[in-house]
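Lab meeting, action items carried over

1. Structure of the two-component assembly. Owner: GW. Status: complete.
Input record:
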Amino acid sequence: MQQQVANVATAETAVAKMTLEEEAKRKKRLWALGLLGFFAIVSVGTFAYNEYYIYLSVYLWFGMIYGMCLQYGRFCFSSAFRDLFAIKVPRMLVGIVIATLLFGAVSAPITAIGLSTFHAAPVSSHAIIAGVFFGIGMVIAGGCASSSLYKTGEGNMNALIVILSLSLTQALFADVGGWANNFVPEAWTQSAAARGLPASINVTDGWVDQYLAGYVWNQPAVTYAEVLGMSNASVSGAFVGNLLVGIVVPASLLLAVVYVLYWRKGYRRKQQKAGKDVSGFTGELAGYWSMIIANKRTAIAGLILGIACALHMLVIQGLRVKFGFKNAGVLLERIGWDFGLSVQGTVFDPGYWYVTTQEAQWVGWTLQKMGVENLDNIYFGFVNGIPNPAINPADWMSFALIGGAAIIALYHNEFKFKKPTWETAMWSVIGGAFMGIGARLGLGCNVGAFFVRVANGDCSGWLFGLGMAGGAYMGVKFFNWWTERKLAKEAEACGL
Amino acid sequence: MGMTFEKKEEGRYVLNVNGYVCPHPQIYTKKALEKLGSGDFLELIFDNPSSGESIEAMIENDGNELVEKKTESGQFEWLIQKA
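Predicted assembly:
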């Protein structure tokens, strides 16, 4: 009898627990719907107020798609390199290479008809050095610039600290002068001074200013099509130069190397255990294909991400033509927001997916409001401006990216508010700072300096990626030492 | 709370990396598995969803077995047997 009562009580507790969990799931889904509704109201409301806001809403909705894809596919550039070196898992690297290929394939026709918003970046060894800084930072921080945004949407406060550190470091690094001028080569100073930039920029005061105007801008900014003597806005240039030579060939080679070094052995062992034949070229091809489709979730996210990235460029360019401007600075002036424009009247308006500059801008804007004069540097004062984050187009994209990730995480019951510990917060701050410096040296992050550039045939993209891989390797080496040290003590207590 | 690695009983160990984000859970799991003998079990407790994807792939690649997966309120409890 007592046993029966106990069984009934246990069953009732289990049912109550299930009911509570179902209720929690239902509430999270309601929150997801609420968030979606909020962004829809922002879009419709601002458009009703002034039609120019549709330009910002385009950034917003593409940002939301990026956030949803990143969260759904757990898309993380840091994980791509780190997991390869740390635990020999190539899953994410393969997913990212596929997404880059798809982005490139959808971008090519847009480039061929001259509607791409993409501009190549200067190419030199600085891209590798910047990538090394960024790669070290993303491993230490536990996520790259874009994954820190989507993880913030999952409720991960460590990721929020990474964003804050990355944003602050960029804003400070872009403006540092005084003592830092002592570390500027004389040739950079002379070259920067000879550019005839506006006096308000005071180009000979500021390390990054002289690095940009005295060195980086002197480097060639070319695509693979241009290197081969073709025009980007041509079928041969876009498809043969940029897509085939710049993406398909190097990406296929990279995947082949990853297959041989990290996938083949495990695949063959599993197949042989199951009694399947893996001999010959057909066996190798089957193994290669199994690596490509190993993670459907990442592959699906990569497919949508690649297509969305290219469509984003097309839609933005279409709106620029419709409204008759080349930069959103004009649009902001027309709707009455003229604070924080650069000396050229421009603001940061990449026309495609980008992460880090808008993060630096909102800190730059905050610092300016606190009395810091930071419009006297190239980054803010001459190129990107520091508009109010509430009407900064790229900030709309980042806010919506976090929102999109939150919507998917809430819908799948994966949202969890995660408080940082002192240790994880420390790694977030240090890693974010490294990434901030790397992003400013490389004129972009894992998205702007690698993903977008590689997919558009920019010669500097793979160089930044090479640096990122090197930096990630160093970061993994460091963490291997750190974790081994800590685990060894615990293992010793277990008698291992 | 920091990482803990304890012996639960003979041939069965518990690694708790709750609160840690990438790459800590996957690196600790790899190192803990390296220390175990063939046939030993590792109970892994973590709460970072993206680490789970990498750990699962690592277990499969290394030929170990993921015996059991439990998820409750954002916390994952996995039982792994070393090959």
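2. GW to write a short summary for the group page. Key points so far: Chain B touches chain A at residues 1-7, 13, 19-24, 26-28, 30-32, 35-36, 47-50, 53-55, 57-58, 60-63, 73-74 (CB under 8 Å). Chain B has one domain: 4-81.
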